[in-house]
Amino acid sequence: MFYISVVPAIRTPFGVDVFDYRVDDASDIQPGDLIRVPFRRRSLPALVIERAEHSKYSGKILGLNNLQPLVRFPAVLVQLLHAAAARTFCSQATVLQAWIRKVPVRTTTLYGRDYLAPTKGGRTGSPLQTKFDLTEYVVDRRERILEHARQASGRTLIITPWQNRADELAQTLNSPVLHAGVALGQAWRYWTHFVLNTNSVLVTTRLGAWLAHAADTVILDEPENDDHKQDELTPRLDARWLINSIKKLNPNLAVLKISTTPPLIETPNIDRINIPEISVPQSVIPFEPGSYSAINEINALTESKLQDAVEAGQSIVILHPIRGERARSVCRDCGWKAECAFCGFPLSQLDTQAHCGRCGRKSELPAACPACGNADLGKSRTGKSKLARQIQAQFKSAKITILDLTEWREYELEKNSLVVVTDLGLIGGYVEDIRRRERLIIAWRRLAAQIFTNQSELVIQGQAPLLDQARAWLTPEGVKTAWQKEWADRQAFNYPPANQRIKILVDGHEAKAEEIKQRLEQAADGQYSIQGPFKVLFRSSTRRPRSVLHLLPVPAAKFSAIRTVLQPLAKDTIIDLDPIAFFM
User: What is the three-state SS of 202-228?
Assistant: First the structure.
């Protein structure tokens, strides 16, 4: 008889994650085995993290007989699970549940302890023969990813930021795909097939990044993209951090990062990076007084180019990031602005209803301004729906596709198309924080690269100063200059990645946030700076108020020291060591 300590795959509070069981001697159970255990009147999958001859709970724990593993993972997964839980200030059980998700009740036992042993694959072809960790900066990322995937042998895991891109790569490679849109039972079959076969390919989003521990080669698509990070729910895991952590545990893992734009964190080494220039045919059309056409959001010169493209039979796509009828409902006379009754965020018009971009609620549109009685609430920028009607009226027989940012990511652009961007300043997203310019540069280079690889033409509208800067951002020197300025700004204001800034979210009234701040000040003992609490605006009335605290460690602070300060707060807060947005 011996004892095992297991972590069940279920969400548990911080600090509640390890449970002991007694096992008969006939069972060959080792750390890394995924088994089923009885747990609070349920049967749950659980990962064995330790085997011992004794347990301090020996008189109180359940015994397990005829125990067989569902999956036999290498023991390195136990180390990865512990590190991920420590990094996210979550229980190990919560992290495991996020990885495993669901094990089918009627699943086949998967035998063979050595099936996850390193294969002879992963290092075929140059430059993998001499280098196991490689970052390549290219314009056509898709083709480079496919080239590496076809050259590699062993288990190859491709991690990409978005579901539609994962689907497209998987279809091209004729491989399984793993993301949130895949049914749970199918997901189980896909990832177990990946780890059971010594030569296999799996394309995944951040959901499957933990499977890199079983891979010989990992290909990371667009590592500068923040969509590799979970920024809403816990555990807030980052696929990029997982890959780096697995690389430390398995130095033989071949990691290839395929990028178009260097992440800002590479700025200190920017002069040594071979940044690709993107030469895309483009017409730059600034917003100028008197230059507008009868079509809202379309410049007169842009309308002329649309007409030429229609007459030439060219495929036309208009990227217009404003959804719905119009961006806001604003009185044209007095400036009154309609706001969400639940969270106070300004309302936009989506079809025939008012829509809140913050909490997602829909409501009736006001018939008139309650302040002055004016019925015209259209003092706002035109949305995609209204623009589509105007385009249709002007170009009746033409096929012109109008997309917002989300639809653009999922759109398959035809070759030799004309792409019109109505406002360059909007393509980086709507978040107004210190990273706005960084996101815009990355999004602009990604868009230009996509148009270049599809041999298409670009018409870009925007403010004249921004358009001048954007032309430079497509060149290596322009990127270097922009990144060096961004880095200097981050240093000046103590923001990442130049300086570490930890985000601590506190749910509850301001008194609780102040109490958390006092506890943090006592634990930090004057060693770290603390800012806040800042009240999070535009929270729904059905949700508790939220505040944000920022902790700024000294530059030389080690993770173990930071964790000692923060761990006592983990049960009462949400802690994010690497925030991708500084205000929520």
Answer: EEECHHHHHHHHHCCEEEEECCCCHHH
The dotted CATH code for 118-259 is 3.40.50.300
Q: Is the dihedral of CA 394, 397, 398, 404 positive or negative?
A: positive
Dihedral over Cα of 110, 112, 113, 115: its sign: negative
Please provide the distance, in angstroms rounded to a whole number, between the alpha carbons at the two ends of the chain.
Answer: 52
pLDDT at 121: 40
Q: For 454-568, where are the alpha helices, taking DSSP H only?
A: 464-473, 476-493, 510-524, 559-566
Element at 440 (helix H, strand E): helix 436-453
- Of 3.30.450, 1.20.1440, 3.30.70, 3.30.1380, the CATH number of 502-576 is 3.30.70
CA distance 506 to 571: 11
User: What span, in angstroms and rounded, lies between the C-alpha atoms of 523 and 534?
Assistant: 20
At 129, the pLDDT band (50, 70, 90 cuts) reads very low
Phi then psi for residue 152, to 5 deg, are -70, 155
Cβ-in-10-Å burial (0-12, 13-18, 19+) of 153 comes to middle
Determine contact, residues 236/577, Cβ cutoff 8 Å: no
pTM: 0.88
Give me the amino acid identity at 331.
Answer: C
* Domain at 2-111: CATH code: 3.40.1440
> Cβ contacts of residue 393 below 8 Å, gap of 6+?
none
As a whole number of Å, the CA-based R_g of the chain is 27
Which residue in the block uniquely carries the two structure tokens 């961006």? 327
What does the domain layout of the chain look like in residue ranges?
2-111, 118-259, 282-489, 502-576
Of 55, 57, 64, 59, give the one whose Cα is nearest residue 29: 64
CA 435, 436, 439, 441 dihedral sign is negative
| pLDDT greater than 90 at residue 190 | yes
CA distance 87 to 578: 10
Cα–Cα distances (Å) from 515 to 501, 522, 526, in that order, read: 20, 11, 17
Q: How many whole angstroms separate alpha carbon 179 and alpha carbon 198?
A: 22
Mean pLDDT score of the chain, rounded to an integer?
Answer: 86
The span from the CA of 496 to the CA of 579, in Å, is 9
Q: Map tokens 């998987």 to a residue.
A: 170
